[in-house]
Amino acid sequence: MITRSGRHIDPEDPVWILNHYRAAEVHGAGAIMRMQRLANTTRLRTDLSRHLRDEAVHAWLWTRAIEEFNGEVVDVDEPYQAVLAAHYGIPKTLNDMLALTLVSERRGLSEYEIHVDQQGLPKAIRRPMKAIIRDEQWHVSYIEDALREQAKEDKGVHQLIERAEHADALAIEELESNAPV
Ligand SMILES: [Fe+2]
Ligand SMILES: [Fe+2]
C-alpha cells in the first residue's frame, strides 16, 4: 500500500512503518519546541506546551510498539517534512510556522486514519494509534483556532494557509511520483 505521502506500507514489516511514524513524531516535537519561542499569547503558549507533551508521548508509544515487535529503533529521514519545507520556503514568522504545522498535522492525521482502518492491524499498533488519532484531531483544531485568532490582526494569514496547502499538495505529488510501486 502506498500512502498519500508516498510511504510504502508493507503489512509484513510493521517495524519499518513504525520507525517512520516515530521519526515524524520526534520531528513534530522539535518543530513545536521551536515555534514555542514565538508564541504571543498565554493561550497559545499553553496549547503548544500540551502539544509538545503529546508529540513526545506519541514518539514514545511508537518506540514501545517497535520494541513489542522486537524491532530495532532507527533514525529515518522524514521525506514529507523536507519536501514540504522546500516548496514553502523558510518559515520566518509565527504565522508561517502555524500554517505549516496545520498542513503537516492534517497530513499526519489522514495517514493514521487510513492505516487504522486496515484489516488485521495488530493490536500493538491499533491501540496506540487510536489514542494518537484523538490527540492529532485536537492538534488540527487548536491550530485552526490559533490561525483564526491571528487572522483578526493580520489579513495575510489566509494567504499563508493557501501557500502551505499548495506546498503540501506539491510535496505529495512529488513523493507519489517517486514512490516505489
Ligand atoms: Fe503526534
Ligand atoms: Fe500532532
Automatic annotation (TrEMBL):
Gene3D superfamilies: 1.20.1260.10. It comes from the Bacteria. InterPro entries: Ferritin-like (IPR012347), Ferritin-like_SF (IPR009078). SUPFAM superfamilies: Ferritin-like (SSF47240). This is Ferritin-like domain-containing protein.
